[in-house]
Structures are given as C-alpha cells and as structure tokens.
Amino acid sequence: MTTAPATLVIGATGTTGGRTAALLTAAGHPVRAASRGGAPVAGAEPVRFDWYDPDTHDTALDGVDRLYLIPPVGDPDPEAVVLPFLRRARARGARRAVLLSASSIPEGGPAVGRVHAALPGVFDEWAVLRPSWFMQNFTGDHMHARGIREDGVIVTAAGDGRVGFVDADDIAAVAVRVLTDERAPDTDLVLTGPEALSHADVAAVLTEVTGRPVRHRPLPYEEMRERLARRMPAGFAAMLAGMDRAIAEGAEDRVTDTVERLTGRPAGGFRALAERELARR
Q1: How far apart are CA 168 and CA 263, in angstroms?
Q2: Contact, 255 vs 180, CB < 8 A?
Q3: Sheet with 96-100, edge to edge strand ranges
C-alpha cells in the first residue's frame, strides 16, 4: 500500500482513466489504479473495483485523498451506486473528486447529470469534466470505429449537426491539472477540440488519411433508437439516440478554450489524431 496520499483512478484501463493514470504516475503522483479485474497498470498500484460490489470499495479507498470518477457505463441511474461511494470516500478522508460527465449532459440532467448536481454537496474540492464526444470513437473500439473498419460507414441520427470532437489525451491532461493543482476549480468544464465537425466531415478526413472510403449514413431518430436497442438496454439506447438528435439540432456545435486555458497548449485537432492513431496499424 502506498504511504503518501494517492489518487484513486476508477476505470484505469479505459480511454481517459488509462491516460490519466499514466500522466499522474509519470509526474510522480501515487496512483491506485482501479478496474474490475485489478489489472496491472504501469507505475501504479492496481486494485480491484466494481461499482456494483461494495465489498471492493473500502479497499480501493485505502490511503486515497482524491478521486477520478468514471461512472458505471450504460447505467441510466448511476447515482444509486455512485453517491453512496462518494459519501464513503469523503468519510474515509478523500477531499477532492473529479467526475467525468459529458458536454451533452447538464448539471441535474439525466444519468450522470444527477451525480454532477450532488457532487458539491459531498466534496468541498471538486470538478466535473464535460467533454464533447471523443475523437477516439472513430479509431478505437467504439461502435463507430467498428463500423468504419468493417463497412466503411458511420451510422448516426446526428444529420448534418456539428460536434467539437475532443482528443482523450486532452481530457486526461485537464483531469491531471484539476486533480493536482493547489486549488480545485469547483465548477464544471466543457472540453472540446479546436473545431466543430459534422460526421460527414469526419468521414472525409478518415477517407483521406486511410485511403479507404468512409461515409456517414444518417438515420431518423426512431430507426437509430431501435438499432441501438438491439445491443443495449432500451432506455440507454433511447438516451444515446436522443443525444444524436440533439447534435442534429445544433446542441454540440461549439468550441471552448478550456483545454488550452488549463494545460497551456492548444487542443489537438481530428486530422492529427487520425494520422497518429491510424498510423499505428
């Protein structure tokens, strides 16, 4: 067990958790790397953690004074398990919590929005990261990336709506700043990349970078909802399809300077990400 106060990174083998844990350990900060299997993470102390198994919670919190929180994925009511854990963490001496939410979910909104609303009542030092949609959705293991690899198609109900897609590396860089700065921001932070792109724009960039044709196939909301419901709970499918519909209506057509303001460097663009990620294959 670490002797100096540590940061518990939940989801430490995931897209933002893994990057956050790596940056923290590289800077010399003790990290407890939490995942369901307790998988090894370079430079960190691995610990088994399952949101739905309270027996794993106390052990994960040993020696921890701050938290990076990724709520349970796909749960339409994460507050039922997250809030009791947060109260337990606070009672055991954790003093700062950084929650990963989404730009599409406001404070008090559905799912993690309710955790967002409750967080300041539990912790005096806190932040909520509200990133736009991840650029890595098109290059990693997301259904969009699989559709691109298998069929050369991105399927959404987003129409021609534009999104300020953000690089997960930039999300992690901001997470490290708000976890380690002397003062927590005590607010929510909307994170985007440097430009807003439609899914057709994304397909065009991927076509140019990979040399393989990629196209965007827009669907009506109802058809997208039913498509998603074949692979996930109906309520979560409706929420995701609804987020696409909000994009079509312009809800995500924005860029912010948050990444540059907090990290001191510009947010990365999608073409650079695509060239970097796809060049590895």
Answers
A1: 14
A2: no
A3: 45-48, 31-35, 6-10, 64-69, 96-100, 125-131, 187-191
State mean pLDDT over 123-140. Answer: 97
Q: Where are the alpha helices (DSSP H) in the chain?
A: 15-26, 57-61, 79-91, 112-118, 143-151, 168-180, 199-210, 221-229, 234-248, 258-263, 270-278
What is the Cα–Cα distance from 139 to 39, expressed in whole angstroms? 23
CB atoms under 10 Å from CB of 210, counted, come to 17
Could you read off the pLDDT of 249-264 as tens digits, one per residue? 999 999 999 999 999 9
Tens of pLDDT, residue by residue over 141-169, are 899 999 999 999 999 999 999 999 999 99
Give the C-alpha separation, 105 to 181, whole Å: 25
| Residue the block writes with tokens 């921001």 | 185
Q: Give residue 212's pLDDT band: very low, low, confident or very high (50, 70, 90).
A: very high
Cα(first)–Cα(last) distance of the chain, in Å?
38
